């Protein structure tokens, strides 16, 4: 009977946590919008002057000011700004002369492709290495992980990108150079998804596919290195916690094979916290891609942002900041929720 | 010598000075037993000395151009080679230590007290003040720091001062969180109540009794964060938004060397080693300090 009656406390708890999640996410987004609004409208000394120039008459100046809506109270301006953002209107870029939202939609898949391959490398190598290091605590592999983690904190990503280009592209010739594909492959496949590898596979143009992969490999591997360093260190620390528990000793005493102790006993409980770690490092990759894309002339959102920064193209800067910030917050919040849903102790 | 040592390690110190000196001495002893922490401290000491005595150490002027000696490979005359204007890269890296040190100190001096104060006020008063301040902190914490710093620099204009401001704006929230957590642990303890009963103002309780107790965990966190701050500052320099040429800032130097990376690799590579070395120094020292000052957190990773 007990199973049929819904547990009231549990439902209330779930509703409260969902409401709390929605509220916090909403507040964070409003905070993000407030910051971009503040940066765009408040910090610049006089946004009107930058439009009309300093030789405009007072009448022209006032007219432009009214046309830009800057004569109204700041809170009204902010609400207008939020409304425009929700309609997908991020203003016009002065360097591409297209709507910023349209620009961002074009460049975003390139970043997504690189960050996704990066996180696949980071998880695919980082998790096994972390488990290995924990199982052989104090061995050479443990020391290697330690060094990796330290380098992940202290090596500039842009520097590693340049050194990688010098060594693997110019020196050894193992990978292709900057850009997404060689110039004579450009525009050969239709941009269905915007992801070059997927598009080439859809078009069954394997020549383009391999060329795109050769270009993607190095920047993705460098991004992957930074998430590998973090994921391996966290995996190692989670595993060490588990391996010190009594149930592990019990399993060992019972004579369970060591690989079974590690993978089926100790590894299972850490899958949940690992999801959060992976989510966090995926979000960090989006941020790291700003530097890497600049080094590799990768036509993604990071490169778009830095080009806009150098041209003082504020609409483009704020639009890109908003999109990266929103994706970053969303990934953070979703991995947080996944953790709560998947971890039986928090139910 | 041994009498000084006995005086420092006395179990029943006779004065406040003796007690605090003894405490520092014990921490120094504990720190010196950690080889990585000693290595980190040594690296940072070298950074300090390099910055202080740059004119004596550098063999050439950091700005002196010599177009006849452009892009020379590392040799006995030019340990790290020369750049596209024939400037000695080693000298520029040496002078760059001053800029890095200045950035790091300024960011720490701005953001740590700011975070400390916000966190302490939040934890001490509680209620709606806490809700508002921590809401603000959480909003900042969940933003990508580098992107936010980039956007701030874009609005403020490129330059080293604005880079410092932008990095400081994005790094205080973590300190506010720590200070609040620390404050909450002793907010309701008896010594605070006693001070309040003696008629001490809120300001006095916070500045004289709460903030000093937050400093040790703050020092640990700031030291550990330094590597990230150096990387962000170098990144801003690399993108042309931080220190402007001809200043020998390491990130900006890497940016100039980017053009020559395929043939004259040393121009971009050498300043990178300096960044890595100093960042590692802060990581090592931070780890060691954490074990000594904040044993609760240590030992896990």
From TrEMBL, chain A:
PROSITE patterns named among the record's database cross-references: ABC_TM1 (PS50928)
CDD domains: TM_PBP2
Family the UniProt entry places it in: Belongs to the binding-protein-dependent transport system permease family.
Keyword Transmembrane tagged: yes
Residue ranges of domain ABC transmembrane type-1 in the record: 108-339
Keyword ATP-binding among record annotations: no
Keywords per UniProt: Cell membrane, Membrane, Transmembrane, Transmembrane helix, Transport
Any Pfam family the entry gives: BPD_transp_1
Topology in the lipid bilayer: Multi-pass membrane protein
Gene Ontology molecular-function annotations: dipeptide transmembrane transporter activity
Gene Ontology CC, one term: plasma membrane
Subcellular location: Cell membrane
Transmembrane segments: 12-39, 114-135, 147-172, 212-232, 272-292, 304-331
Coiled-coil region list: none
Gene3D superfamilies: MetI-like
InterPro entries listed in its UniProt record: BPD_transp_1_N, MetI-like, MetI-like_sf
Name of the featured protein: Peptide/nickel transport system permease protein
From TrEMBL, chain B:
Assigned keywords, A-Z: Cell membrane, Membrane, Peptide transport, Protein transport, Transmembrane, Transmembrane helix, Transport
One GO term (biological process): peptide transport
Any one GO CC term of the record: plasma membrane
Principal subcellular localization: membrane
Segments forming domain ABC transmembrane type-1: 97-286
Protein family membership: Belongs to the binding-protein-dependent transport system permease family.
The name this protein goes by in its record: Peptide/nickel transport system permease protein
The organism of origin for this protein: Paracoccus isoporae
């Amino acid at each position: 009977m007990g199973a049929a009656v819904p547990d009231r406390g549990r439902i209330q708890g779930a509703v409260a946590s969902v409401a709390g999640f929605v509220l916090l996410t909403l507040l964070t987004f409003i905070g993000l919008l407030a910051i971009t609004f503040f940066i765009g409208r408040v910090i610049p000394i006089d946004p009107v002057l930058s439009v009309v120039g300093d030789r405009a008459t007072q009448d022209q100046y006032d007219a432009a000011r009214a046309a830009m809506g800057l004569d109204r109270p700041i809170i009204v301006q902010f609400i207008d700004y939020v409304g425009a953002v929700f309609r997908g209107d991020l203003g016009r870029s002065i360097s591409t002369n297209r709507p910023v939202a349209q620009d961002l939609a074009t460049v975003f898949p390139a970043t997504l492709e690189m960050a996704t391959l990066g996180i696949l490398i980071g998880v695919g190598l980082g998790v096994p290495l972390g488990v290995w290091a924990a199982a052989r605590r104090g061995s050479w592999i443990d020391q290697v992980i330690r060094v990796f983690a330290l380098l992940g904190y202290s090596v500039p990503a842009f520097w590693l990108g340049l050194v990688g280009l010098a060594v693997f592209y110019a020196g050894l010739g193992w990978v292709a150079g900057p850009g997404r594909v060689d110039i004579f492959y450009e525009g050969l496949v239709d941009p269905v998804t915007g992801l070059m590898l997927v598009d080439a596979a859809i078009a069954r143009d394997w020549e383009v596919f391999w060329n795109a992969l050769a270009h993607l490999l190095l920047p993705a591997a460098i991004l992957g290195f930074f998430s590998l360093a973090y994921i391996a260190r966290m995996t190692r620390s989670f595993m060490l916690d588990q391996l010190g528990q009594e149930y592990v000793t019990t399993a060992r005493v019972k004579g369970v094979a060591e690989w079974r102790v590690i993978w089926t006993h100790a590894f299972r409980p850490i899958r949940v916290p690992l999801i959060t770690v992976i989510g966090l490092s995926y979000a960090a990759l989006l941020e790291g891609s700003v530097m890497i894309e600049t080094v590799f002339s990768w036509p993604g959102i990071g490169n778009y942002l830095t080009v806009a920064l150098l041209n003082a193209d504020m609409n483009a800067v704020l639009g890109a900041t908003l999109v990266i910030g929103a994706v970053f917050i969303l990934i953070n919040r979703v991995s947080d929720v996944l953790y709560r849903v998947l971890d039986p102790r928090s139910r | 010598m041994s009498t000084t040592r006995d005086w420092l390690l006395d179990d029943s110190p006779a004065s406040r000075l003796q007690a605090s000196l003894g405490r520092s001495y014990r921490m120094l002893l504990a720190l010196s037993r950690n080889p990585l922490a000693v290595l980190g401290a040594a690296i940072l000491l070298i950074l300090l000395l390099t910055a202080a005595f740059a004119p004596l150490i550098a063999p050439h002027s950091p700005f002196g151009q010599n177009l006849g000696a452009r892009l020379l490979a590392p040799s006995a005359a030019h340990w790290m080679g020369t750049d596209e204007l024939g400037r000695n890269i080693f000298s520029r890296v040496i002078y760059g230590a001053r800029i890095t040190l200045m950035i790091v100190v300024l960011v720490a001096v701005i953001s740590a007290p700011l975070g400390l104060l916000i966190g302490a006020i939040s934890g001490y008063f509680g209620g709606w003040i806490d809700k508002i301040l921590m809401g603000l902190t959480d909003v900042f914490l969940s933003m990508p720091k580098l992107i936010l710093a980039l956007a701030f620099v874009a609005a403020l204009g490129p330059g080293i001062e604005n880079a410092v401001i932008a990095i400081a704006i994005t790094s205080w929230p973590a300190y506010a969180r720590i200070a609040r957590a620390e404050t909450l642990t002793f907010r309701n303890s008896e010594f605070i109540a006693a001070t309040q009963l003696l008629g001490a103002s809120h300001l006095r309780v916070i500045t004289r009794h709460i903030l000093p107790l937050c400093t040790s965990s703050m020092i640990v966190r700031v030291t550990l964060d330094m590597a990230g701050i150096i990387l962000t500052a170098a990144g801003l320099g690399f993108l042309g938004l931080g220190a402007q040429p001809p200043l020998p800032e390491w990130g900006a130097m890497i940016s100039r060397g980017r053009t020559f990376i395929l043939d004259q690799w040393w121009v971009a590579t050498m300043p990178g080693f300096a960044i890595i070395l100093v960042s590692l120094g802060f990581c090592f020292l931070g780890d060691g300090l954490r074990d000594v000052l904040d044993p609760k957190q240590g030992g896990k990773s």
